[in-house]
Specification:
Four Helix Bundle (Hemerythrin (Met), subunit A), membrane, ICMT_MeTrfase, 5 helices, mainly alpha, methyltransferase, methyltransferase activity, Metal_cation-efflux_comp
Length: 174
């Protein structure tokens, strides 16, 4: 199972690196148009949460020899469904999607795709992923600890910061 884990782990890392590159491109696009970042002081904690998650996952699976449950296929299927939702979020926001919080003056709040159905869908997807990925490999400690840490940080810091920033946008968008 460790071979499958390494392939899956590398897939996740490549995916995240690609998303960070897209976020940088989108940030550059917004800054060129007068956009600015909000909440930059807490971004290091988001990075720390994700790095901690990946490191703990690798240790639990490769060092502590976590054993995949007999029902591993269920969280794997759910994970791939969340990926479809993730890319729906990215596509819906287009150049406004980012891992950071950017405000573009005079922009309007986007209310299409999953954003017309629920607030902050990408955060719900990340919460789900942080729970699902470890469950595929039986890494229950990682699933519990990092799901709790991530949820609490999003609820206490990230979402309130983004909500305040979104108040600066016009209320109707495409």
């Amino acid at each position: 199972m460790s071979g499958y884990f390494i392939v899956f782990f590398c897939f996740l890392l490549i995916q995240r690196i690609g998303e960070l590159r897209l976020a940088k491109k989108n940030a550059d696009w917004m800054r060129q148009r007068g956009g600015y970042e909000v909440g930059a002081n807490h971004y290091k904690y988001i990075v720390a949460i994700h790095v901690g998650f990946f490191l703990t996952l690798a240790v639990e699976v490769l060092v502590w020899n976590a054993v995949a449950p007999s029902w591993w296929l269920l969280p794997l299927i759910l994970f791939f469904l969340t990926q479809l939702l993730r890319y729906w979020c990215i596509q819906s926001l287009g150049p406004y999607w980012n891992t950071r919080i950017y405000i573009l003056p005079e922009a309007t709040l986007i209310k299409k795709g999953p954003y017309r159905l629920v607030k902050h869908p990408n955060y719900w997807i990340v919460i789900t992923e942080i729970a699902l990925v470890p469950l595929i490999f039986g890494a229950y400690y990682t699933a519990f600890v990092w799901s709790l840490i991530n949820f609490c940080f999003l609820k206490a810091v990230r979402i309130p910061t983004e909500e305040k920033a979104l108040l600066l946008l016009k209320s109707e968008g495409p």
